[in-house]
Amino acid sequence: MPQPSLLGLSGSIRRGSTNTAILRTIAGHLGSKASMTLFPLNDVPLYNGDLEGEHLPPPVQALKDAIAGADGIILCSPEYNHGMSGVLKNALDWASRPGFNSPLKNKPALIMSSSPGAIGGARAHAQVRETLASALARVVARPQVTIAGIFQKVTDGHLTDEASLKFCLEAVDDLLSEIRLLSAQPA
What we know:
5 helices, 18% strand, 37% helix, alpha/beta, six-stranded parallel β-sheet, Rossmann fold, two-stranded antiparallel sheet
């Protein structure tokens, strides 16, 4: 199998996003195992079913094409008011269309969350998992990647906490194993 391509989706569009920092750091540590592109969600408009069809808004079409073209996706969400970010939920709502046949169907997916709080965004993590399951994505079965106390673990736009980074990279290895498993199955 050629080098797998991963797509990173950050649930925060903030310039100093810790979730984007996590994804950026992971991308820089993949070496020859995989490549990863981060897709910014800044321009994805609010979901509107009236805009579905042949002529999707260009940022939505770009998102769906990026998901379809990736071997796997990594989603990293903050936790806002005990849930996933609206930015990520909106992007997943667009990407989940058409129902039961979207680019998310059977797509290997790894979920991460972070929070300044003590449970690292576990409630957001659960919501992302539920949304991906309803879109028929293949969420990697493994211990949750939740990073608590995130503001002390990101410096200058990079995840600098070695234990957290090690845990994230182990999770990426699980995602890559899932991708290899799927690629070995007959079509």
